[in-house]
Amino acid sequence: MGAIKVHEFIALDGVYENPSWTFEFGFDPKMGEAIGAVTGTCRAILLGRRTFEMFAPAWSPRTAEEDPGAPFFNESPKYVVSSSLETADWNNSTILGPYSADTIRDVKDKVDGDIYVSGSGTLVRAMLADGLVDELHLFTYPVARGEGERLFAAGGPVTKFTLAASEAYSNGVVHLAYGLAVPDAA
């Protein structure tokens, strides 16, 4: 059984929604290397419906010559959590149905390697609450958005993390890699 590795672009105040606001900061090539390291051990992709609907048309026409990440996104098995999506035409895509922690555990058991999650904030919040996220990779941008959907919603469960790595980039973005903290033995 592999790990579920979550990657998020996030503002200082926790907003992840519609990350087009990240464009003004540019993309440091070292960020691409870090994301490549996260996906390097992954053998499948897990997405929520909205992220899937954004990724499918953006990634499906890309080639390896255009983007070195294209083969991973286009060839990997993709699992989509959605109660409303009826078809998923992007290569190797499977609709799992509505969120179920047991279904995610089954996928985790089935995949021979790690599973990559990008965006998909509603899905990630549910998986965090159910203890299903093994690694959380936050690419934190030097801006407070003020408004927008936050990764850690008010009233969510207390979840402790352990810092595994950090890296700062020339555009002011900081990559913070966390693992779930091991609960204290009483």
Molecular structure report:
The chain has 186 residues and is of the alpha/beta class. The chain is 25% helix and 27% strand. The protein has five helices and eight strands; from the N terminus they run βαβααββαβαβββ. Strands 4-3-2-5-1-6-8-7 form an eight-stranded mixed β-sheet, with helices on both faces. A hairpin with a 5-residue loop joins β7 (161-168) and β8 (174-180). The mean pLDDT is 92.
Topology:
Layout: E1 4-11, H1 29-39, E2 42-48, H2 49-59, H3 70-75, E3 78-81, E4 93-97, H4 101-110, E5 114-118, H5 121-129, E6 135-141, E7 161-168, E8 174-180
Parallel strand pairs: 1-5, 1-6, 2-3, 2-5, 3-4
Antiparallel strand pairs: 6-8, 7-8
For the structure shown, list the relevant keywords.
5 helices, 8 strands, eight-stranded mixed sheet, alpha/beta, 186 residues
Short description:
With 186 residues, the protein is an alpha/beta fold.
SSE string, helix = H, strand = E?
A: EHEHHEEHEHEEE
Estimated share of beta-strand residues: 25-35%
Give the biggest sheet.
8 strands, mixed
Strand arrangement across the biggest beta sheet: 4-3-2-5-1-6-8-7
* DSSP summary, beta strand count: 8
CA-based shape: globular
> Structural class of the secondary elements?
alpha/beta
Distance between the termini: 28 Å
Low-confidence stretches: none
Please bin the fraction of helical residues: 25-40%
Radius of gyration: 16 Å
The overall average pLDDT, rounded, is 92
Number of helices: 5
